[in-house]
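Study this fold:
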Amino acid sequence: MSLVCFTLALVAALLPATTTGARDVKPPAWDLPLRMAVATAVVLLLTAAARHLGPTISGLLSPVPVFLLVMAIFAQRSQGPATSIRVLRGGVIGSFAFAVFFLVVGALLGRVGIGATYALASLGALAVNGASLSVGRRILR
């Protein structure tokens, strides 16, 4: 867990600095439907391939990093590289919560009931996400 947190912090710190001002850009009408279609296609493809890939590879190809990639590409196209970098930085900062969620599920799933496990994992993820967002806003601008 500490290696995951160290790696995430290092990646967040190594992303280039950007300006905080966002351009007021009205996306074209096709933008949101295309994003939805790309994300849906990725989920359907991974779901269809999961039986052949197995649980480990399917998990490694999970939609979370893929969705972040799709969002960063669309941000780059519509608002430029600085916005894309900020999207990626937000994804990295949000990954601390994912790490805690999966750690809690992995530790408790066989020991307590499924409802309690996922409730505790969700609470842990919410707490860590709030803390990492607060810290990230102050030091990773």
Notes: DSSP finds five helices and no strands in the chain. The CA atoms of residues 109 and 115 lie 9 Å apart.
